[in-house]
């Protein structure tokens, strides 16, 4: 509450109310101990530049979606150690000088500057997503929180886009993962960033309220199995949708079941009476939104028959059923059988809409399942995806890092025997080069270096390997960075809405060539540096690398 009060005082009563756990103490202890050591060493006035980036695309793919930027900016708005924070740190670190805690209690993010790529953009390894500039101690204290806000958000958004690419543009995708998510915060974040990445809705009611995401859902197997037969139903009446006349809907459903059973070549005694009662009672509750879970007992011999009976009873009263959900079994076979059933009913009763009833599949679906179903010619038009989406089982972490690249205007490099872990020193800018409407390379240059121009050849070099280089002749050049935070304020007003970011994701992904997006062996996207930056990296590398003895 103290953090919220501080934020309201600094930014007005309409300040964004961020999740209460996103605060300065949501960090690793070593950030605090480093801050104290910096302070003790007299580095209070030191100015630093940090890059936040990742080294490898997730899910064996060749692209990533940048998510979490707005949460980072809201965190900066609220960045302040409360009195209770300081009291806790005093107790936790009793050997630290008391004056340091007074210093810590007065820190804000007002002197920090943030340049970033637009949220929802396609991004690639080694290109900084965010450049953080400002006082060394404050910039260091931001590290863990910024990483936790970006890592999971970007991973979920990327996973969601991959499901969208697998399913195609016309399939509805619903996120059903709250119950399997890593805690409530993980569940909320997954709902938000799955929607950002192209999902159409969520089962998560709180996410719907907080983020204005469409919420979708019907019932579980428990609802079906709680009914035994139609005689136990106390509510039997349903009003005709046009005349308002009350009709015994349960009897109507039973009548339609008798009529339709021989048409579908089924045996009524093999179907569940309890399931029929459950479907009919749910249809009474939601006559305009009836979508039934049909696999509680037997999808073929019971579920489809009972659904069709109730759907035709609704039709007689001028309501339109929505469709079915299948949560087990051979989804390709069952979806084709269901579609054939709907087409048979549509033809028999001249109900064209029946052909296109929704078939939702929600049986522990992952990306590979969808590709396989595509090959099998499924008839599903909506997937409800939970566990594999929200937990990112194929790759549970993105691996963003936060590296110091400059201190007091002096570029810094981190060396490693692993080339992937060598950093690119100094303050940098980045550009995306396009040809024929598609991006062909991201070019990282030294800050202040002349920008590449459309129509002019540009030498693009691998940052570390001398022989990997090539000329690019771009038709279009776009600068990747915008100033998002300066002088204690968000500098882009208003920030894009979640729907606008979602649209940016779609546009950005659509701009990629198909070979970068394909599921199997995608073409690696090129990230290069300018010749000037390449030479500078290697000059600094030689200056910092120790010279060994030959023995």
Note down, in words, how this protein is organized.
The chain has 551 residues and is of the alpha/beta class. It is built from 19 helices and 23 strands. The strands form 6 sheets. Strands 15-14-1-5-3-21-22 form a 7-stranded antiparallel β-sheet.
Q: Which geometry do the CA atoms define?
A: elongated
**What does the radius of gyration come to?**
29 Å
Average pLDDT reading: 95
Q: Unreliable stretches, pLDDT < 50, 5 or more residues?
A: 1-15
| Helix content percent band | 25-40%
Distance between the terminal alpha carbons, to the nearest Å?
Answer: 64 Å
The count of β-strands is 23
Give a short account of the largest sheet.
7 strands, antiparallel
Order of strands, main sheet, comes to 15-14-1-5-3-21-22
The SS-based structural class is alpha/beta
Alpha plus pi helix count: 19
Binned strand content: 15-25%
